[in-house]
Amino acid sequence: MRASLIQIAVDRDEPVDSRRRRAAALVREQRGSALVVLPELWTVGAFAYDSFEAEAETLDGPTRRAMAEAAADAGVWLHAGSVVERAADGRLFNTSLVFSPEGRLAGVYRKIHRFGFDKGEAVMMAAGEELVTVRLPDATLGLGTCYDLRFPELFRGLVDAGADLLVVPAGWPERRRAHWTLLARARAVENQAYVLACSTAGTHAGVEQAGHSTVVDPWGEVLAEAGAGEEILAVDLDPKRPAESREQFPALKDRRLGLAPPVVRGS
Fold it and tell me: Rounded to the nearest 5 degrees, what angle is found at the Cα of 119, between the Cα atoms of 113 and 123?
């Protein structure tokens, strides 16, 4: 199973429509891959908060149409990264879209953990409330987005729902790049699952992006890692590997759930 991660560069001088066409062309070039992944908010930039309102789109907006056509033309499963979605009630969401090789919208995930500490995305966007998996012929995708990577309980929930390949598009800043690679490996090891972590290159509203998209196997081995610039990673994955690792080292079977609350003792 070949997976391609498109670490696209985001430049405010490039019009959104132009970047949308360019991303679609890059997806079409991945014919032969089973799965293609784009980063978080690659249309506008994850830190370009001043563009969120203007570039927000409905689920049937221009990005959906362009990515559905690209997925069908390439014959690939496409995780099209995320867009600023404007819901029917006017709220904004950071929303990931997954398409089948026929161009059908197969999965929608609204980011649960919003970044910003009471500013930026955290106040401009509503929080998603549902864990989402998407069943492929040879794997089950578990969907997370960027800041979600810091919350292991989300990914454990995805594994409980059958995920064995965790896909994390991101707009991760360069100044915390060490956390990006560490957390991607941690989520892979603790869940005995592949992690496909696809970030952007370039600069969003003055925030330098980390790049360094990475593919990690269920034992925590980094199979491929990009540099800082625009780049495409193509990696062959063994769909049997997660199940084999869980059988060889059955740590997930030793989980203890439903424990009583901690006892707080006085001095």
Answer: 60
- The per-residue pLDDT for range 81-135, each reduced to its tens digit, is 999 999 999 999 999 999 999 999 999 999 999 999 989 999 999 999 999 999 9
Does residue 260 belong to any structural domain of this protein?
no
Give me the residue label for tokens 């910003």.
Answer: 116
Q: Which of 40, 55, 121, 230 is catalytic?
A: 40
Angle in degrees, 0-180, between the axes of helices 177-191 and 152-160, rounded to the nearest 10 = 30
Q: Is 56 within a domain?
A: yes
Number of domain units in the chain: 1
Q: Does the annotation mark 40 as catalytic? A: yes
Range of the domain at 206: 2-254
In a domain, 262, yes or no: no
Q: Is 111 a catalytic residue?
A: yes
Nearest to 7 by CA among 253, 262, 228, 248: 228
Q: What CATH number has the domain bearing residue 66?
A: 3.60.110.10
**92 phi and psi, to 5 degrees?**
-100, 145
Both tokens assigned to 31: 């014919």
Q: Which of 55, 85, 146, 198 is catalytic?
A: 146
- Type of residue found at 2: R
Assign residue 230 a region: left if phi > 0, alpha if psi is -120 to 50, beta otherwise? beta
Share of the chain above pLDDT 70, in %: 100
DSSP 96-152: EEEE-TTS-EEEEEE-SS--SSSSTHHHHSPPP----EEE-SS-EEEE--GGGGG-H
